[in-house]
Amino acid sequence: MAEVRLPVEAFLEETERLVKAGESRGVPLRVCGSVGIYHAIRRDHLASSLYALRNGTEAPRIAFKDLDLAAREKNAAAVYRLFVKDFGFQEDRETNALFGSFRNIYYHPDFQIDVFYDTLRFNHEIPIKDRLLPGVTLPLEDLFLGKVQIHAPPRKDLIDLASFAAAVPLARLDAGYLADFFGDDWGLWYDADLNLTASLKTLGTLPVDFSSEDRDLVREHLAEYQALLHVCPKTRRWEKRRAKGIKDLWYEPVDEVR
Q1: Beta bridge partners of 66
Q2: Whose CA is closest to 122, among 227, 192, 39?
Q3: What is the pTM of this model?
């Protein structure tokens, strides 16, 4: 998958234009994924500096692979009309035919657009049908859940988590909303715990120009999220699944589409 062929600010302006175009037609679209995280944290200097390291530390830069959007499945036909009929984008017919009830792919002249319907369905499932609140992105809680649910994430996703935590302490979020997910789904809880630990470890690989104070701040925020996992109330369903542990598969394997 090629990188987005637009400067960062031009790309963000274009994402906002697409969201506004959807709103004007009664079709809520919300930015999610890595672009959603960057949009949410970009005004925070430490967080954006961390984000620039997701593709390596030798030449820090902000770059994107594609645009992830959340929408409602009942609006899928309207999304098609917006992107294909109104804007003239190409569609990935094979993917849309196979996975159209929960994911579509469209091709803007400068980047790929992935539309996820009703649920952020990666290695776990995060329902978002009722979370398309006013704004450009999904709510912060859902941006976090969408990233922390990934099983065995690559380094770039761990950096995303660190950059998010740098800008967004747990106190800014609805901890009860997060706790409802983590306290009922052991598999999600387990992967989230592993991922927060791994994200903490990536802080040791940062360039020397990140001060000890910066590192300590991010560690503190990541530790707050991890503490939530351990103190949140657990359901009987969670306890029963924990008893099985990793003897049974606890996540949904997902093959990357294109």
Answers
A1: 112
A2: 192
A3: 0.95
Segment (H or E) for 188 = helix 186-202
Matching residue, tokens 């036909």: 77
The pLDDT of residue 257: 42
pLDDT of residue 256: 53
Q: Which residues contact 165 (CB under 8 A, 6 or more apart)?
A: 199, 218, 221, 222, 225
Query: What is the Rg, in whole angstroms, of the alpha carbon atoms belonging to the chain?
Result: 18
Running DSSP on this structure, what letter comes out for residue 137?
Answer: B
In the prediction, which pLDDT does 58 show? 78
Assess contact for 161 and 218: CB atoms under 8 A: no
The first and second tokens of residue 196, run together, are 């927060």
Bridge-based pairing state of the strands 66-71 and 111-117: parallel
* Low pLDDT (below 70) residues in the chain: 1, 255-258
Strands across the sheet with 111-117, in order?
30-32, 66-71, 111-117, 103-108, 90-91
Q: Where are the beta strands (DSSP E) in the chain?
A: 30-32, 66-71, 90-91, 103-108, 111-117, 119-121, 125-127
Q: Three-class SS string for 141-187? A: HHHHHHHHCCCCCCHHHHHHHHHHHHHCCHHHCCHHHHHHHHCCCHH
* DSSP type of residue 58: S
Give dist(CA 22, CA 117) in Å, integer: 14
Question: So what's the pLDDT on residue 1?
Answer: 61
